[in-house]
Amino acid sequence: MTAVTIGIDSTVPGVATDQLATARRYAAGIQTWPLTPRFNPHRRWYHRLATEPDGEVWVLSWLPGQGTDLHDHGGSAGAFVIVSGALTEGPFADPRGRSPRLKHRRYDAGQGRSFGRHHIHQIVNLGDEPAVSLHVYSPALREMTRYQLSDDQLVVAAIDRAGADW
């Protein structure tokens, strides 16, 4: 893999900018990572790359078609940067007087975004090429809630806990 120039694309003004800066710094230093991202055809691969005084840094790999459930980050704010490939994020939107929906946006290598503590989204590799992304969370992840949309309602499907489920 080669290093890429990372551009800021923060869609939450004033929120999680430190996480985005940290994500950019780690993504730009891919040559110094202690491991090479792996790809698993059966499930997404992920690895905690580092801990920071106020959070943690994860690297994830995504083969075409791999993605997450609709989920939150258990009260952690964060940011992600695409290191290689492209990923599509579907942040959850619940506009007043309308049905809930996901607004999809594609992020290519070098792009990223920050998000606040109550952000709910899903991410998927809709492209033809593998992708690698770098994620920063503050505080460190303790749990993640997975959701489903049922009859235009957001329903908790599961709560995953650090140390038990990942």
Low-confidence runs (pLDDT<50, min 5 residues)? 1-16
Order of helices and strands: HEEEEEEEEEEEE
From the spread of the alpha carbons, the general shape counts as globular
Count, helices: 1
Number of strands: 12
The helical percent reads: under 10%
The percent range for strand residues is 35-45%
Main beta sheet: 5 strands, antiparallel
Keywords:
166 residues, mainly beta, 5-stranded antiparallel β-sheet, disordered N terminus
Give a written overview of the molecule:
It contains one helix and twelve strands. Helix content is 7%, strand content 44%. The protein is mostly beta strands. The radius of gyration is 15 Å and the shape is globular. The N terminus is likely disordered. A hairpin with a 2-residue loop joins β11 and β12. The two termini are 26 Å apart. The strands form three sheets. It has a five-stranded antiparallel sheet, covered by helices on one side.
In short:
This protein has one helix spanning 17-28, and strands at 45-52, 55-62, 70-71, 77-84, 86-93, 101-102, 105-108, 112-115, 121-124, 131-138, 143-150, 153-161. The protein has a 5-stranded antiparallel β-sheet with strand order 1-2-10-4-8, covered by helices on one side. Strands 5, 6, 7 and 9 form a 4-stranded antiparallel β-sheet that branches.
